[in-house]
User: Which sequence fits this backbone?
């Protein structure tokens, strides 16, 4: 039985209203915390650090009252590919991983396939990184409305405006891109339904029939892109019609102000990241 | 009377079920449609009309609660393949731009017949027939890009795409919105013709009550995801207060009848058309019908 709810698996960028402490934090504080934690996720290869990061991220999600199950469901459609990549990394990357990451000991070998302590570490750490990044980005976008995110990014980029960086435009581009993820999901769903309603066979041939799935994807992607471009044109007209004129002299309905909890959150994230990074070679 | 072709009992549907964004669109819909029937489906915005009609051609399927049987098949059974049904039950979407996914008008209308594996000549013939049925000139429109069409032309092209499958049941979701009065009349005439001459089962979803006069033998009213009223046109429009309570109106002629009744002048029936209103009112004015 086909399901046309493409949207269901798009969890990033969906704001889930709430009154939690995380929801109430200043968007700049949330962006800073998430960026710091992303740095910790990216630069550490230690199991202990990743366990701590996973625990912290899950703790923050619980604090924000966000449903972990829903957030993790976003990764479900990509799971076969992720597992395939992980297996390739585990069995084929042995030699290279051994020198790149700590662990030269060969744990298992069969012909050209070799698992070293390094490749095992790299595979597990990569999977942990993926999960942590998904949770962190979801934490930010599920607990912050896109408008607040725009204001936050713009305010953080403003000091660079003196160097000629178009801060307002950049934040606007980022926000529109984020805002359009669910919109494009919905559009994709509509095209699927339109084709199915006229007798198209949309059983994409199962997860393992890649070529057939790719061919059918092209038929769906062309109208999707065309619709996206038409939508972009409508968006431009709507902005023009409401006298949009860029960032200069533009006032804001909401004035951002950092409060004590924002400073505390940023300081804690800084201390945590610094500790994880400083001890990254010492931790097992 | 034969068995109903479509039978829904307590049908429920929730979008994004099991997520924090879940929206309950259908809360308990009962509906029966017999073969060769023409019914009107009315209801305010958000009543669940579009969700219901997407069930009727197998795009959405009942999940946990409620039952839906189409042509004797239990649609809640995941083993039932909905594709053969979709080819017999044509659905024209609420927004025509949602339905037109090919670059050229002709290609879009030909999509359905091509899926049926028909020979080239027959596909072309069906495209020509469908375009003529909806009043789009074949020569002028077949190679036109979809993006260059006006709103009304898109609506016609979308309906032609559905008609080209030659469905035995035709479902139109707010098909008359966006059409000018001439286009609307033409479309309603087409539906009457398909229903009366070819025996097509027609389900017309609309918020314009007048569209159903002279077409639908029965009207089903949805509100808040439930069936709230069902009956003949006259029975349903006789319940003006209930319809208004659900954010709906009644045809203008029925309002005239109501206004006269409020002044103590009761008509023998709820007038639905100008002609019926004239037949009811003229004798009371001492004017004989047909003579002005």
Assistant:
């Amino acid at each position: 039985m086909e399901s046309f709810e493409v949207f269901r698996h798009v969890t990033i960028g969906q704001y889930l209203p709430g009154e939690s402490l995380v929801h109430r934090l200043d968007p700049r504080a949330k962006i800073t915390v998430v960026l710091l934690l992303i740095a910790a996720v990216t630069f550490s290869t230690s199991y202990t650090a990743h366990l701590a990061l996973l625990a912290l991220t899950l703790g923050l999600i619980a604090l924000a009252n966000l449903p972990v199950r829903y957030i993790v469901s976003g990764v479900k459609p990509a799971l076969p590919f992720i597992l395939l990549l992980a297996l390739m990394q585990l069995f084929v990357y042995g030699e290279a991983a051994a020198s790149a990451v700590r662990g030269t000991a060969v744990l298992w070998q069969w012909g050209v396939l070799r698992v070293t302590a390094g490749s095992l570490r790299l595979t597990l750490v990569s999977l942990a990184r993926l999960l942590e990044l998904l949770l962190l980005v979801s934490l930010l976008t599920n607990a912050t409305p896109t408008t607040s995110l725009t204001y936050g990014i713009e305010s953080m980029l403003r000091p660079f405006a003196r160097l000629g960086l178009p801060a307002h435009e950049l934040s606007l581009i980022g926000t529109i891109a984020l805002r359009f993820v669910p919109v494009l999901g919905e559009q994709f769903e509509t095209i699927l339904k339109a084709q199915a309603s006229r007798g198209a066979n949309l059983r994409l041939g199962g997860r393992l029939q890649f070529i057939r799935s790719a061919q059918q994807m092209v038929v769906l992607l062309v109208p999707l892109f065309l619709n996206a471009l038409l939508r972009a044109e409508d968006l431009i007209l709507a902005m023009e019609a409401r006298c949009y004129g860029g960032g200069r002299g533009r006032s804001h309905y909401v004035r951002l102000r950092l409060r004590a909890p924002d400073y505390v959150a940023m300081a804690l994230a800084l201390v945590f990241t610094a500790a994880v990074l400083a001890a990254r070679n010492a931790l097992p | 009377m034969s068995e109903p072709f479509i039978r829904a009992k307590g049908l429920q549907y929730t979008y994004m079920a099991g997520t924090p964004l879940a929206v309950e669109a259908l809360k308990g819909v009962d509906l029966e449609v017999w073969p060769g029937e023409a019914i009107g489906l009315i209801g305010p915005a958000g009543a669940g009309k579009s969700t219901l009609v997407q069930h009727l051609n197998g795009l959405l399927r009942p999940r946990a609660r409620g039952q839906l049987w189409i042509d004797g098949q239990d649609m809640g059974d995941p083993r039932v393949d909905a594709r053969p049904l979709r080819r017999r039950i044509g659905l024209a979407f609420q927004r025509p731009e949602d339905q037109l996914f090919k670059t050229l008008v002709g290609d879009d209308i030909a999509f359905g017949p091509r899926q049926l594996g028909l020979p080239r000549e027959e596909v072309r013939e069906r495209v020509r027939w469908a375009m003529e049925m909806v009043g789009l000139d074949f020569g002028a429109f077949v190679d036109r890009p979809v993006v260059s069409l006006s709103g009304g032309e898109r609506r016609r092209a979308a309906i032609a795409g559905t008609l080209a499958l030659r469905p035995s049941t035709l479902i139109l979701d707010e098909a008359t919105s966006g059409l000018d009065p001439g286009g609307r009349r033409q479309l309603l005439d087409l539906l009457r013709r398909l229903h009366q001459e070819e025996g097509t089962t027609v389900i017309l979803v609309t918020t314009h009550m007048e569209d159903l006069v002279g077409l639908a033998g029965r009207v089903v009213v949805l509100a808040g995801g439930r069936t709230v009223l069902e009956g003949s046109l006259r029975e349903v429009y006789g319940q003006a207060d209930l319809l208004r309570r659900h954010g709906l109106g009644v045809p203008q002629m029925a309002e005239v009848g109501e206004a006269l009744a409020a002044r103590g002048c009761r008509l023998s029936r709820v007038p639905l058309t100008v002609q019926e209103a004239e037949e009811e009112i003229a004798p009371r004015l001492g004017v004989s019908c047909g003579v002005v």
In short: The radius of gyration of chain B is 21 Å. Residues 259 and 265 of chain B are 9 Å apart (CA to CA). Chain B has two domains: 6-250, 251-292. The mean pLDDT of chain B is 89.
